[in-house]
């Protein structure tokens, strides 16, 4: 089987494993959606039992998992008790917002960090390189929630940006162009927080891998032929340094998704984050599992894209040459 | 041995090195920054179509001298006259015209080439800065491949697919691309087996006769030095402690460092091969 086929099979197996773990852990968590109803004297225990039967929650875990797997194979991820609607469309409507947020944040992070990392490596040891190094360490050390809250406090105090949610109250009455700017304004703060956290890691990785490539003997050899710095960077160093950066892409996407869930809750962005949080608190079983599977799916797809890009960038991986880095 | 300018142009020497010194700063947490003198007051010259070998133990400063001459490092003080110009303190840009005169062949051919490049790209790269046309570059690459004993059909193979000896030939082809007058061979035989070393030595001797090339040979392998070099300079602790014709140095070493090197290499075995190119 070829390389991509193997990666695809591995991705599917991973997804099955994740779903099994989700079922097991969610089941182990104490309490159920109907616990609050049990405390209500106006609802008879018979009603609750019949409700549980209706949603299939009285079945043993294995039976439920098997049924869920069969349905999931056809795109049905179960039924949300709290929202009284199938899970998949509900998740998708929220996942679109999360994707919008993470993709914009990722583009911003990569567009800024990659040139910055290459530049810092080319300036190695000088004042500016040291300054960016210290700044990035600082950003790495502070958790993004702290940044989120600090930035939110600034925005709220000086009212620079719209905050909370995704749209203003008068959104429906706006022209298309004004709608675009409205969403963009609401997005700016969460995107900034996410891009800052992700960009710092990318910056440091790119800088390190470019530095390593610059030290390679063949780069020095080419330098002795009088080859210009620009050609050295673009023709020799960047293709070599691209490998580690592309592998980072998959992790970066996964990190963005998990980071995004938190930032969404803090900034009130209507994405998967607040939905999964609410579902977990109310023990909406299938919604929690669906949300987790969606996040896992993003991560696995991100890694898969990174693998494909690596094969495109470095033919030695495809050919299986033993000395490929 | 005067260092005035006119003599360097009048004499037959292609390369004249005068009072070359280079020190590095090595530091650690306890001792702070300590300067290490890698080369101290080095003098020598290399004549046209001749070979000078610099020998010495590891860390004696041979490679530092080589790198200063190839323009990879700038000496702290001193002069490096090539073709009547002192290149020691030239900037990267000003050095460009002299890159074609002096070329370096590195210790490890495998790592001195971009493994993602094809053989053609490796050989043609130095030509790029001269702005030659595609067909012209290809033609030069084909000629050079044949000259170093490789098939021109292999030009499109990746550099990583060549064997050790073939890669060293490829490195020689690359070094010849710009038509140099002096090749700096920095332990260029490292990691090759004996028969391969002999083949590469023969190739270099043939090329020397054909193109009147001068070689600056950095080595600790006395057998090869005896075979290739006209003159030998012995380095120890950054200084040249003894120099003379190869015959002179091998048959009557004066300095203790030279004696030590000769003893450890059992130099007696190599004496029969002294005449240059005799067994080629």
Quick recap:
The complex is a heterodimer of chains A (325) and B (280). Chain A is an all-alpha fold and 325 residues long. Chain A is 78% helix and 1% strand.
- Biggest interface, chains and residue tallies: A-B, 21 and 23 residues
Count of alpha/pi helices of chain B: 10
**How many extended strands of chain A?**
2
Helix content of chain B: 25-40%
Helicity level of chain A = over 70%
Number of alpha- plus pi-helical segments of chain A? 13
Radius of gyration of chain B: 19 Å
Total strand segments of chain B: 10
Share in β-strands of chain A? under 5%
Q: How confident is the prediction overall: mean pLDDT of chain A?
A: 83
Largest sheet of chain A: 2 strands, antiparallel
Task: Determine the mean pLDDT of chain B.
Answer: 82
Characterise the protein shown here.
The complex is a heterodimer of chains A (325) and B (280). In chain A, 78% of the residues lie in helices and 1% in strands. A two-stranded antiparallel sheet of chain A has the order 1-2. Chain A is globular and about 85 Å long. Chain A contains 13 helices and 2 strands. The C terminus of chain A is likely disordered. Chain A is an all-alpha fold and 325 residues long. Chain B is α/β, with parallel strands linked by helices. Helices cover 35% and strands 26% of the residues of chain B. Chain B has a 6-stranded mixed sheet with strand order 6-7-8-3-9-10, with helices on both faces. In chain B, a hairpin with a 3-residue loop joins strand 1 and strand 2. In chain B, helix 4 crosses helix 5, helix 4 packs parallel to helix 6 and helix 5 packs across helix 6. The radius of gyration of chain B is 19 Å and the shape is globular. Classes of the chains: A mainly alpha (325), B alpha/beta (280). At the A-B interface, helix 9 and helix 10 of A face helix 3 and helix 4 of B.
């Amino acid at each position: 089987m070829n390389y991509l086929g193997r990666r695809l099979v591995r991705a599917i197996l991973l997804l099955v494993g994740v779903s099994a773990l989700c079922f097991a852990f969610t089941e182990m968590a104490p309490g159920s959606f109907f616990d609050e109803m049990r405390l209500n004297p106006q609802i008879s225990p018979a009603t609750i039992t019949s409700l549980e039967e209706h949603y299939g929650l009285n079945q043993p875990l294995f039976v439920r998992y098997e049924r869920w797997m069969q349905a999931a194979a056809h795109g049905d991820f179960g039924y949300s008790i709290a929202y009284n609607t199938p899970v998949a469309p509900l998740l998708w409507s929220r996942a679109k917002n999360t994707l919008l947020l993470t993709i914009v944040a990722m583009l911003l992070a990569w567009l800024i960090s990659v040139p910055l990392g290459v530049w810092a490596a080319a300036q190695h040891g000088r004042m500016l390189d040291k300054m960016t190094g210290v700044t990035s360490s600082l950003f790495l050390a502070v958790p993004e929630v702290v940044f989120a809250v600090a930035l939110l406090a600034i925005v709220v105090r000086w009212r620079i940006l719209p905050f909370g949610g995704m749209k203003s109250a008068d959104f429906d009455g706006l022209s298309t162009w004004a709608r675009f700017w409205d969403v963009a304004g609401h997005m700016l703060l969460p995107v900034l927080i996410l891009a800052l956290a992700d960009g710092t890691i990318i910056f440091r990785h790119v800088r390190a891998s470019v530095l390593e490539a610059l030290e390679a003997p063949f780069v020095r050899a080419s330098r002795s032929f009088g080859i210009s710095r620009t050609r050295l960077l673009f023709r020799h160093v960047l293709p070599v340094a691209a490998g580690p950066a592309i592998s980072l892409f998959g992790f970066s996407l996964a990190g963005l998704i998990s980071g995004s869930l938190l930032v969404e809750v803090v900034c009130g962005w209507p994405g998967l984050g607040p939905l999964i949080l609410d579902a977990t608190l109310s023990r909406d079983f299938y919604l929690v599992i669906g949300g987790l599977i969606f996040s896992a799916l993003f991560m696995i797809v991100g890694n898969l894209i990174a693998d494909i890009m690596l094969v495109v960038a470095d033919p030695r991986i495809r050919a299986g040459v033993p000395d490929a880095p | 041995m005067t260092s005035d300018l006119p003599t360097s142009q009048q004499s037959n020497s292609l390369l004249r090195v005068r009072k070359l010194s280079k020190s590095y700063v090595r530091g650690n947490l306890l001792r702070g920054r300590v300067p290490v003198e890698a080369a101290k007051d080095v003098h020598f010259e290399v004549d046209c179509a001749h070979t000078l070998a610099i020998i010495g133990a590891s860390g004696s400063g041979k490679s530092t001298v080589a790198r200063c001459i190839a323009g990879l490092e700038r000496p702290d003080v001193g002069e490096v006259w090539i073709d009547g110009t002192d290149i020691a303190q030239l900037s990267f840009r000003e050095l460009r015209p002299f890159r074609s005169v002096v070329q370096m062949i590195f210790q490890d051919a495998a790592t001195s080439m971009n493994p993602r490049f094809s053989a053609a790209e490796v050989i043609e790269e130095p030509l790029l800065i001269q702005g030659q046309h595609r067909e012209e570059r290809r033609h030069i690459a084909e000629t050079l491949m044949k000259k170093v004993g490789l098939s021109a059909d292999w030009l499109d193979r990746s550099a990583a697919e060549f064997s050790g000896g073939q890669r060293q030939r490829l490195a020689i082809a690359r070094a010849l691309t710009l038509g140099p007058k002096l090749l700096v061979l920095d332990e260029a035989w490292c990691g090759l087996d004996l028969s391969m070393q002999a083949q590469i030595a023969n190739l270099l001797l043939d090329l020397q006769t054909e193109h009147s090339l001068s070689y600056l040979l950095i080595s600790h392998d006395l057998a090869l030095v005896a075979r290739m070099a006209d003159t030998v300079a012995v380095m120890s602790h950054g200084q040249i402690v003894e120099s003379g014709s190869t015959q002179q140095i091998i048959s009557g070493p004066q300095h203790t460092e030279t004696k030590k090197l000769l003893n450890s290499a059992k130099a007696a075995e190599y004496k029969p091969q002294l005449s240059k190119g005799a067994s080629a």
